[in-house]
Amino acid sequence: MADFAPVSTAEREAPAEPPPVQAAMDAPMTADMVPAEDFAEPAPAVIAEAPIVAPARDREAAIAAMDWPALDAAVAGCTACGLCHTRTNTVFGVGDRQAEWMLIGEAPGENEDLQGEPFVGQAGKLLDNMLVSLGLRRGRNVFIANVLKCRPPGNRNPEPAEVEQCEPFLKQQIALVRPRVIVVLGRFAAQSLLRTTTPIGKLRGTVHSYEGIPVVVTYHPAYLLRTLTDKARAWEDLCLAREVHDRAGAQA
Ligand code: URA
Questions:
Q1: Residue 155 — pLDDT band, cuts 50, 70, 90?
Q2: pLDDT (0 to 100) of residue 19
Q3: What value does the mean pLDDT of the chain take?
């Protein structure tokens, strides 16, 4: 679109018609004259926005039109943020692509980065047990993904710009799976997906919605490994998720 077309550095820095330098220097300065440096400045708002907004929208639209193979390839080759320089593997997600359940974590850790699969470390073992308690198994009727597809170095928290670049991938995964229920694991994933700063304690216990799909929030398995006393609460969350799943099935 014309109004979003990027403007080259040269175009931005050079006025279209250079002022007649000699005449300007010779003429006396008057109050209505614009200082010379203002000629060098572009109209700021439109030009500053153009290169950022339009490509971001185009990228989101392109991702939203992808099928599984295209999405897989786009994630594998993604260089949209700095994490591409430190990752070993991208971690696309794993499981049944027509699953009724979708589980969403935060980001790959060290083991996941090495193996290219989500939740393969200690937290993953607990997650597998959580799945069993729901009558599920990794790869059968459940798809597991993360908000970020690349590991933040040193397991630091993901940065907002990284989440922003990665979100279209997750959004499209959810659109392709179209699960009956999404279970979000941990504060970070919950707050990112639901675009809120509400603490996890307040997000638990109610059914939220993402793109029309019911969302239940529970604790991250890594947190549960450290805080055994909250396992009972996590069990309550899974019971709620099962209820939501069954209800959605009855309506289908
Ligand atoms: N923690 C997550 O949130 N995701 C993983 O894949 C592994 C650990």
A1: confident
A2: 35
A3: 84
Per the structure, how many domains does the chain have? 1
CA angle 189, 194, 198 (to 5 degrees): 85
Residue 105 CB–ligand 1 contact under 6 Å? yes
Atom number, ligand 1, closest to the C-alpha of residue 112: 6
158 ligand 1 Cβ < 6 A:
no
106: CA distance to ligand 1 center in Å?
Answer: 6
Answer whether residue 22 is part of any domain: no
How far is CA 118 from each of CA 66, 139, 182, rounded to the nearest angstrom?
Answer: 22, 12, 16
Q: For residues 190 and 147, is the Cβ–Cβ distance under 8 A? A: no
- Tell how far the Cα of 118 is from the centroid of ligand 1, in angstroms: 6
Q: Is the CB of 118 under 6 A from ligand 1?
A: yes
* Whole-structure pTM value: 0.79
Task: Please check whether residue 223 lies inside any domain of the structure.
Answer: yes
Report the CATH number at residue 238: 3.40.470.10
Q: Locate 217 and state its tokens.
A: 């929030």
* 219: pLDDT strictly greater than 80: yes
